[in-house]
Amino acid sequence: MNPGPENFLQYIRYEKRLSHHTLTAYANDLDQFSKFLVAECNIGQPEQADFRHIRSWIVSLVEVGLDKTSVNRKIATLRCYYGFLLRQKVITIDPMTKIQALKTSKKLPMYVEEKPMEMLLNDIDFPDTFEGIRDKLVLELLYGTGIRLSELTGLKTVDVNLYEKTIMVLGKRNKHRIIPLTQPLYELILQYNQLKNDAFSGQADAVYLLVSDKGVPAYPVLIQRIVKRHLNLVTTLEKKSPHVLRHSFATHLLNRGADLNAIKDLLGHSSLAATQIYTHTSLEQLKKTYDQAHPKAKK
Q: How does it assemble (predicted)?
């Protein structure tokens, strides 16, 4: 058996347990690269390519105007793929050794300021209906725990420990983490559960915590709509997504003195490097405060 692209995709699906979205992206990248090799280099298999062919593909991507972030993702795909081939002893030299990622400007995480979030969750009235309390619970869970969209939709009823006031979240690479619930969030879950049972007479999906207006498991588009509709009430941010609430959770914790390692664990990051971007956001906030308040700032 030749461990080419198909075997590699099987490997990252079943061994690495990457998400379906990542798997699709890897498959598309390898398909594009393979077609380039055939059309431009007369090479039938990616394992026959060397760093010059890879570099030519990267140059072609830049020339057609693909943004650097997307190019770097494709480079990461090839780096993972050729690493796989090297371990399988299909190749003896890794052609990615001489390939470097393109330099990009770092984008700070987009987040909602504390006051607008307080206004949204404390001052805006949510109807005491199943839909109203469900929508508020979505916002409170995203902002109050920092979980990802996929983690929210995957949250099961049994993952909520009302006795311990915690939730168990299944994160990337099938890693579990425990996140504490605040008292208001705990009480909101109790209220939601009662309304859920009343609205559907116990006929709603019992496996997953969050359900749609029809009682079926909540899906990503539904959550995105809920978040965007409510963030529109309090912020003019260009992006209004569940991930913005995750960024807000981390940024507000850091601004209030939370330990970076604790934030890392709450977010489910595998390394501290991924969490450190929030220190830049916090620094920007400090600069803003300084410019507004210090008498020497504008002189």
A: Forms a cyclic heterotetrameric complex composed of two molecules of XerC and two molecules of XerD.
